[in-house]
């Protein structure tokens, strides 16, 4: 791919309206799209980013068919590993408190902490393809040409049935104390929703409250923002090497978006998630570092 013109990390203002159908409510073709996306990516949940994209049915059909083969390749898996390694290295620059001893003093067993860490690992790994897809989508919509895949082989599928289903604490399930944490998350991040990652970790409310309170003061600091900007750039560097199916280009994606709404509306949604995901994956990496000593 030719050298990319800069694609700055930016949060659209005002925020675009989102018409997201939760997994539990998806039916028919939409449910099949959700399940296929999860199967190819090897993740147990449909990310809010792809649910938002899939709300534009024609747009997502063209996009997903153009990247589906790529997302099932070893090259894509290795790209996700590279991105995760970079994120976790950079997240170490954020001062964190080791929460292991404190939580064990509160009564958490090593087994319970291991369950929390296993949940964190699901998101630490599983968020990477979502950021790469968001970055790739924006690049194409902004006029960049990506390499074309030389083959049309069926992608490898990954066994999601071996992954434990995620148990989520929805806002209407939460106790008043946890609702305050959710409100703080939305206020701090400037969002109208609470990401799946946080709702999954809130299954252990005293742990999650401590983890969020340790992280929250670092959000929006210059160091934190620089890390997010660098992760944004790293993802763009990585997707510049990933081939897509022949025929997926700026014009075909714009034409597909026009059958749902228009390029500008879709682009604002894409920009929103490309802006948000570096922060989300950094926060998850911080949560992982907070429990780094549970098996020492």
TrEMBL record:
<dbReference type="InterPro" id="IPR019714">
    <property type="entry name" value="2-haloacid_dehalogenase_DehI"/>
</dbReference>
<dbReference type="InterPro" id="IPR029032">
    <property type="entry name" value="AhpD-like"/>
</dbReference>
<protein>
    <submittedName>
        <fullName>Uncharacterized protein</fullName>
    </submittedName>
</protein>
<dbReference type="GO" id="GO:0019120">
    <property type="term" value="F:hydrolase activity, acting on acid halide bonds, in C-halide compounds"/>
</dbReference>
<dbReference type="Pfam" id="PF10778">
    <property type="entry name" value="DehI"/>
</dbReference>
């Amino acid at each position: 791919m030719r050298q990319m013109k800069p694609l700055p990390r930016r949060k659209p203002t005002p925020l675009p309206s989102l018409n997201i159908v939760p997994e539990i409510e998806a039916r028919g073709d939409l449910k099949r799209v959700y399940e296929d996306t999860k199967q190819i990516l090897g993740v147990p949940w449909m990310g809010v980013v792809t649910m938002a994209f899939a709300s534009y049915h024609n747009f997502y059909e063209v996009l997903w068919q153009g990247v589906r083969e790529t997302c099932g390749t070893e090259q894509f898996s290795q790209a996700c590993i590279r991105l995760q390694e970079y994120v976790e290295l950079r997240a170490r620059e954020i001062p964190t408190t080791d929460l292991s001893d404190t939580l064990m003093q509160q009564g958490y067993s090593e087994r319970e902490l291991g369950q929390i860490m296993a949940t964190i690992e699901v998101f630490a790994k599983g968020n990477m393809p979502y950021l790469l897809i968001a970055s790739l989508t924006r690049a194409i919509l902004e006029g960049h040409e990506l390499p074309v895949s030389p083959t049309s082989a069926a992608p490898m599928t990954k066994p999601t049935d071996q992954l434990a289903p995620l148990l989520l604490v929805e806002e209407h399930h939460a106790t008043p104390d946890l609702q305050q944490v959710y409100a703080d998350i939305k206020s701090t991040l400037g969002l109208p929703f609470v990401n799946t990652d946080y709702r999954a970790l809130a299954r252990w409310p005293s742990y999650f409250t401590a983890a969020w309170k340790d992280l929250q003061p670092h959000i929006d600091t210059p160091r934190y923002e620089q890390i997010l900007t660098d992760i944004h750039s790293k993802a763009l560097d990585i997707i510049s090497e990933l081939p897509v199916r022949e025929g997926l280009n700026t014009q075909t994606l714009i034409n597909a978006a026009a059958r749902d709404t228009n390029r500008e509306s879709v682009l604002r949604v894409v920009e929103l998630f490309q802006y948000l995901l570096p922060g989300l994956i950094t926060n998850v990496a911080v949560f992982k570092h907070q429990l780094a000593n549970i098996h020492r």
